[in-house]
Amino acid sequence: MGNKQFRGQRQPAPTAMGRHGRIRTPTRTVTISAVALALASVVVMQTGVQAAPSSAPTPRPATVTYTGGKLSYSPDSLGNTIPDFSAAGYRGGRAALPQAPVAVRVQAKASGDDTRRIQAAIGQVAKRAADAGGIRGAVLLGPGIFRVTAGIQLASGVVLRGSGTSAGGTRLQALGTPGSLIRVGSDAAYTRTGTRATISDPYVPVGATTLSVDKPASFTVGEQIVVQRPTTQEWIHAIGMDTIAGGDSWRPNSGILAVRTITAVKNKTLTLDAPLTTAIDNKYGGGTVWHYTLHGQVTEAGVENLSADATAFTQDPNYGRPSGGKNSEAGAFASRLITIDAARDVWVRNVRLTHFGSGFYVNDNASRVTIERADDLNMVVPARLAPPPAFMIGGQQVLVQDTTVTGDHIHAWTTQSFAAGPNVFTHGTATSLSGGHVDAGPHMKWGSGTLYDQLAIKGNDSAFIVANAADGGTGHGWQGANNVFWNTSAATYTIQAPPTADNWAFGPTGQQVPGKHDAELPTKPALGTIVSPGRPVTPASLFDQQVLERR
After folding, report:
1. What is the DSSP letter of 380?
2. Which of 372, 382, 506, 544 lies 20 to 30 A from 10 at CA?
3. At a CB cut-off of 8 Å and minimum separation 6, what does 261 contact?
4. C-alpha distances out from residue 422 to 82, 207, 294, 377, 536, Å
């Protein structure tokens, strides 16, 4: 499973409905070369910046270069920069995953449903006093098979730990109707409390960690707040989502809810612990900042050191049922090891899945999550079913690293609509088992600020995609914005840029191809910013370098 347990956390050296009505061996095969990103030699193919009048110079895109052993960020004309993704993961990437002491042991039995026994053990540990870090203890599952039905509920401060992923370790064997074997947190949404302040800056660029508000007095250092960037009709029109056939699915809504921690307050300026990944522009409705509550939030909890098999789920008569364009709680889409809902500072590490239809969901009410050393193998997807995801992120500050995926007709690493970022998929491989399609990239409706870093997809029908999907799915439209693809490898890639934003690809390996839906659109989409196509860039991993430089 690899030995980089604390990358991003950090080592001493280098489905519930969402708030918008949506359903919400790690062998490294990427070839790395020492191609420096010297500013003078960067090759920019084309940018998604809106075309200027013919008499005006073409706007320069935001970019990043690597010289003298350090990254250098160049903003575009509006001040937008490529985000710093180093705040992704458990505790914002500033702490190693904890090692919880064993509090209760549960041994395997020869037969019977073990769900209640495991849940009772979690409840027992949940009653213990938490230590200074919020940890109460671990439930240790002994070697052997544990037969479980969907919905073991994890509690704050509790770790569910197996005895390893090998043949002599712990295996969860799914029973009953397909669902998440383990759930973390409630399906509650962020609820505003107290003062709502209006952002007074006319434009807050991508990558910003500061903003000004009209009512700063109620905000304090260390407080968690929501920065809301609403989806307005003016913006929907500006990005052309009122002209696609499925445009009625793009309606004004609460938009992007970026949960951030305040690190400084000076006069009217708030400094945040992580960058914003979509610009906040007064002409498209501006934004607000508010205090919140999140009912049923689970913190300081983890799942680790176990395997799981979902062969029994595949026998359900509804397993191949079409999902109606939504990841509903049915069939292959619901066949998961874990769903993380209202949760913060939780993790999954060293797990191996086989014969699941999906795998890992992190919904939009989750933040500061790490999933590492996780395999989703031999995914079972019925014919004619929409592709399910192995790893799906709807939340923010989520780190997914050292992963392996095998299957066909799947999304390997992807995000949901209006994901707030910054999120990271890094150091992973995905492989087609029998020639089926395997892809990665944002799935639908403006998943923003995700880094796809050091990822390789093997197969003749493999792709990294961020594009205007038009009326595909539920009117997915612009799948994502301000995403970065860094040293990715697949048979093909499509990197397009929506109006008001960009997407970047550095060192992509594969054939650049048009978007699947380009011919359906009234205007051909602009390309994103593509740097050094066909030649991997230095540093090998943008995420690793950003973490190194933040120390």
Report:
1. -
2. 506
3. 92, 222, 223, 224, 225, 272, 273, 274
4. 11, 9, 20, 27, 23
Question: Percent of the chain at pLDDT above 90?
Answer: 81
Let me know the angle formed at the C-alpha of 52 by 59 and 201, rounded to the nearest 5 degrees.
Answer: 65
Helix ranges, 69-142 (H): 115-126
Token pair 């800056």: residue: 201
- pLDDT given for residue 59 in this prediction: 65
Specify the pTM: 0.90
Estimate to the nearest angstrom the gap between the alpha carbon of 126 and the chain centroid.
28
CA dihedral 292, 298, 304, 309 (to 10 degrees): -100
Question: In this prediction, what percent of the chain has a pLDDT beyond 70?
Answer: 87
When pLDDT is averaged across residues 387-393 and rounded to a whole number, the result is 96
Q: Are 199 and 213 in contact, with CB atoms under 8 Å apart?
A: yes
Q: Would you give the DSSP letter of residue 23?
A: B
pLDDT tens digits along 100-138: 999 999 999 999 999 999 999 999 999 999 999 999 999
Cα-based distances in Å from 426 to 213, 320, 486, 501: 35, 31, 9, 23
Q: What is the pLDDT of residues 194-226, one digit of tens each?
A: 889 999 999 999 999 999 999 999 999 999 999
| CA gap 3, 161 in Å, rounded | 18
Side-chain-side CA neighbours of 14 within 13 Å: the count stands at: 13
d(CA 220, CA 218): 7
110: left (phi over 0), alpha (psi -120 to 50) or beta: alpha
